[in-house]
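The records we work with from here on pair a chain with its fold. These numbers are not coordinates but entries in a learned vocabulary of local backbone shapes. To see the layout at work, look at the sequence and tokens printed below.

. . .
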Amino acid sequence: MPNEIERKFLVRGDAWRGQGVPERIGQGYLRTAGPATVRVRIAGDRGFLTIKGPTRGISRSEFEYQIPLPDARALLDTLCDRQIEKLRHRIRAGAHTWEVDEFQGDNAGLVVAEIELASEDEPFERPAWVGDEVTADPRYRNSALARRPFRTW
């Protein structure tokens, strides 16, 4: 079973800017309650359907499938009333690539860095612009930001 092991941190300062080519991402949620989260995403010119299981520590099952872009647009337009927008910057640091998400719209002002790991105890280089860890804070989950945007905190 595919497994995602991810840690999430707030970003401080602007030293990360200009290090990665931004990709525009729009995503919405078909389901956010119960044992699974079902997400539709458009990243650049590609569409995806992702199913994530419950989080246990910093791990959870994740199944992601590329879908036709027109299908992703139709799902977002007709079935996803809670959506988020962000610019994703992929920045290499040591042996890992960080995904820095600069949120837009109702979540503007929030910048979060994520790192995916092969194991929960895998060591990694922490760039100076990586701030406090928020992995365990459910408010920072994208599905939560779609329901309760950052600007309302």
About this structure: The two ends are 36 Å apart (CA to CA). The chain has one domain: 3-152. The domain at 3-152 is CATH 2.40.320.10 (Hypothetical Protein Pfu-838710-001).
